[in-house]
Write a structure and sequence with these properties.
Elements: E1 2-4, E2 7-10, E3 15-18, E4 21-23, H1 27-37, E5 44-45, H2 46-53, H3 62-75, E6 85-88, E7 92-95, E8 100-101, H4 129-143, E9 148-153, H5 160-174, E10 179-184, H6 196-207, H7 221-224, H8 230-239, E11 245-250, H9 257-268, E12 275-281, H10 290-301, E13 306-309, H11 315-326, H12 335-343, H13 347-359, E14 363-366, E15 373-376, H14 389-400, H15 404-413, E16 419-421, H16 422-429, H17 433-446, E17 450-457, E18 463-469, H18 472-480, H19 484-501, H20 510-520, H21 523-539, H22 543-557, H23 562-583
Parallel strand pairs: 9-12, 9-13, 10-11, 11-12
Antiparallel strand pairs: 1-2, 1-8, 2-3, 3-4, 5-7, 6-7, 14-15, 16-18, 17-18
Length: about 575
């Protein structure tokens, strides 16, 4: 293992760690980083890097720039002031961080002497038993000569790769002669290169065998595949004659059309083959093509493929995952529910949040590895954890793929917490509500970041749809990426729009207006709105509620200047005295 700064490159398991947080890397992305890390402090020319990683394939040098840009985003590196990867214009790259050997300590968290955490990759699969059994059944059909094409779909982090890894572990026991190879579609690269992930997978196959028996396509093959995937199909089928051959193609939402046509051809060919093709993708990814959707639907109708759509984990399954992660059957009170609610059942988000709680010492382990017990130092009702750092970077990458107008709509939506009405976004942006509604509808269909959650009946007789973020983490990242001034302007516009919508009945929404003014830092308007909300509660004989609101107003008034505070506190005290008389 190679350590640099807070990162550890696990060369055995081909992944990256930042302290105790696991960062999954596509195969070629890992290979580029590994080569740089294993050759620190010297110039690595473009030609050297291309020859080392693509020895039998011609690749355009600009491909390296795509990978280095992606690595910089993951490492949080700045090209102008690099901590890790320095660009030497027209020559190549240099890895400038100090690199040391690491024995594996980066995968441990010391809550007490001798305690440690499992690696994320070693945590047993939870909540996917039925899906795994189904995959095992399909693998058995493949072993009997009935070729299988399986689409495994779901959002990022839902567990598609973990399920495939579990199948791989099963096959090593039940079918030790089976061969599984994997190719990854890389965003910004594989869309423009024919059969990119398939050649990567065949490269793995070649590396795992002692001799080249003609199965592996070399550079000359690319010139023979212009008229269709027939010869490549034959090469794959030849690999699946004597033993089960499992071809995994990850993230086909970024695949070139030639790769999709190859998958379709493999499913449609009628000759027996012990072949199983597993293709993963995110249905709502912006880059998911119409061709992919129509191809899959046509194959489903003809019963030539299977789709496994992975849903979020249930509360019980997520609790089981966390228990296995901590090696502890009983979790601290409220921990499972807290993580389930914040992660919405997404395993990647749940484990990232768990690691964050350990790093922040919200969770600590008492005792030794064998007898230690994880304890929670803070009650979950009091927790206000930020988004884990590495997870925030991944979410930023997802947001950066959107155009600026879409980013602004989502940022405006984040001003209204997890759910946001279209009218509020339109007010914050000073845009036409119909335009905003169309944008939100498009974002729901193409990104999966938001989902329609219902509608509001407004006082003027109109209706306004409202949406919610798929995960609270998305909302938090979108909120924090805005400047303080822009957020304040949006909050005030929403408060003023509330006032206009409920003109004559402003007291009904005074507390909501106060929330927006408070978020904007406008203390005077906040206190006035809270006093109006307290009077509204008083008129409904909700005296305890009125008292609570006025006490909140007193705390807010402490932020005001001396003159403004004295006036506001006098008004609040008069209201409080009236309320307390009624309560007694």
């Amino acid at each position: 293992m190679k350590q640099f700064d807070s990162f550890v490159l696990d060369t055995s398991n081909e992944c990256l760690w930042n302290q105790s947080v696991h960062i999954a890397l596509a195969n070629k992305l890992f290979c580029v980083l590994r080569y740089l890390v294993e050759n620190p402090g010297r110039l690595i020319t473009h030609d050297e890097l291309l020859d080392a990683l693509w020895p039998t394939t011609y690749v355009q040098p600009q491909v390296l720039r795509t990978y280095v840009l992606e690595l910089r985003k993951i490492l949080g590196d700045d090209a102008k002031h690099p901590k890790f990867i320095q660009t030497l214009p027209k020559r190549g790259y240099k890895f400038v961080a100090a690199v040391t050997e690491n024995t594996g300590a980066a995968f441990e968290h010391t809550g007490a002497p001798g305690t440690s955490m499992q690696k994320v990759g070693s945590v047993a699969l939870a909540g996917r038993d039925e899906d795994l059994v189904r995959l095992q059944h399909l693998a058995q059909l493949a072993a009997n000569g009935q070729r299988q094409l399986v689409f495994i779909t779901g959002p990022a982090g839902i567990g598609k790769t973990a399920l495939i890894d579990a199948l791989h572990d099963t096959l090593r026991t039940t079918s030790p002669q089976a061969c599984m190879v994997c190719g990854h579609c890389a965003e910004g690269l594989s869309e423009g290169e024919s059969y990119y992930p398939v050649f990567e997978a065949f490269g793995q196959f070649l590396a795992s065998t002692d001799q080249d028996d003609g199965l592996v396509p070399g550079p000359a093959w690319r010139r023979t595949l212009q008229n269709g995937p027939g010869e490549l199909c034959e090469a794959i089928e030849k690999s699946a004659q004597e033993k089960v051959f499992v071809l995994v193609v990850e993230d086909i939402q970024w695949a070139h059309e030639s790769t999709l046509k190859l998958l379709s051809a493999l499913a449609r060919r009628g000759t027996p083959a012990k072949l199983m093709v597993l293709a993963t993708y995110r249905p709502q990814a912006r880059s998911t093509s119409l061709f992919l959707k129509s191809m899959k639907q046509d194959l489903l109708v003809r019963h030539l493929c299977t789709e496994l759509s992975l849903a979020p984990l249930s509360s019980g399954a997520l609790t089981q995952l966390l228990s296995r992660r901590l090696k502890q059957e009983e979790l601290p009170t409220g921990l499972g529910r807290f993580i389930f609610e914040r992660s919405a059942g997404n395993p990647l988000l749940a484990l990232a949040l768990l690691e964050h709680m350990i790093a922040e010492r919200v969770l600590v382990c008492r005792g030794t590895t064998e007898e230690g017990k994880w304890e929670q130092l803070t009650d979950v009702s009091e927790l206000e954890l930020s988004v884990p750092g590495e997870l925030a970077k991944l979410i930023e990458l997802e947001i950066d793929r959107l155009n600026p107008r879409e980013q602004r709509v989502l940022e405006a939506g984040s001003l209204m917490r997890i759910a946001f009405p279209v009218w509020a976004v339109a007010a914050a942006l000073d845009e036409d509500p119909e335009y905003v509604e169309k944008m939100c509808d498009d974002l729901e269909r193409t990104t999966g970041l938001v989902q329609r959650a219902g509608h509001d009946d407004l006082p003027d007789g109109t209706r306004s749809d409202f949406y919610s973020f798929t995960h609270e983490f998305y909302r938090e990242v979108l909120y924090q990426r805005q400047t303080t001034g822009r957020r304040a302007k949006g909050h005030i516009r929403i408060a003023e729009r509330l006032r206009a919508l409920f003109v004559g009945r402003e007291n009904n929404v005074a507390e909501e207006m106060a929330m927006q003014y408070e978020a904007a830092g406008n203390w005077q308007h906040t206190v006035r709105a809270l006093c109006a909300a307290a009077r509204h509660a008083y008129e409904r004989h909700a005296y305890q509620e009125s008292n609570r609101i006025l006490e909140h107003a007193s705390r807010i008034a402490e932020n005001m200047s001396n003159v403004e505070r004295s006036i506001s506190l006098k008004e609040i005290e008069d209201e409080l005295e009236m309320v307390r008389e009624m309560m007694t």
